[in-house]
Amino acid sequence: MSIFRLTKAAIFAALLSFAALPALADPITISVEDAFGDAATTTFDVQVVGVFAERSELLVKTPNKDQYALYLPEVINDPELTVPNRVLEVSYVLGVVTDIEVFPGGEPGFTVADDVTWADQGNLPVDFIKRLVTATAKIESVDTANGTVTFIAPDGETRTARVQDPKILQELKVRPGDLADISYFEAIDLDAKA
């Protein structure tokens, strides 16, 4: 059983409106096994609505007609994936939490680091886009015994993810409702359906 509890809407919303972060002083190098372990892959379909090439965003809608802009510079010029009305199968993997920084103020949102180097391909297919995401979200609970954090993402969905280093949870001084920057790995793949 996976330690991650996600609905398709939550997974999809995690992919929304990413903006690239400026490069950090020291690039991060990590193995796929360390970032994702045995996390499960979830798949769902979306339909392409449009492309915003200048922002590297693909506008898609879900079967329930919700529309979202996905920040995906890796696929924005791929003619197989950016055709209006094309149905795409999305495969998504939520990896481990690498950092939690509690702070007062701020607004929920997402950013994507652009300075991660992968030491290996691990058990993920080669075409998965792997990245480190930081979400500003509300903490719901911390489970030090199981090494997990539960947070309410900016999309309103509740997510539970394993924290890579147990010290982070042990040292975390947090109350339900506190806002925090939660950094975690994710992998995504898009395939055009016939």
Account of the protein in words:
- 9% of the residues lie in helices and 45% in strands.
- With 194 residues, it is mostly beta strands.
- It has one domain.
- The strands form 2 sheets. Strands 2, 3, 4, 5, 6, 8, 9, 10 and 11 form a 9-stranded antiparallel beta sheet that branches.
- Strand 8 and strand 9 form a beta hairpin.
- 30% of the residues are buried.
Helix content, binned percent: under 10%
Backbone structural class: mainly beta
Distance between the termini: 32 Å
> How many individual β-strands?
11
List the helices and strands and how they pair.
Elements: H1 8-14, E1 28-30, H2 32-36, E2 41-52, E3 57-61, E4 67-71, E5 87-102, E6 109-112, E7 116-118, E8 129-143, E9 148-152, E10 158-162, H3 166-171, E11 179-192
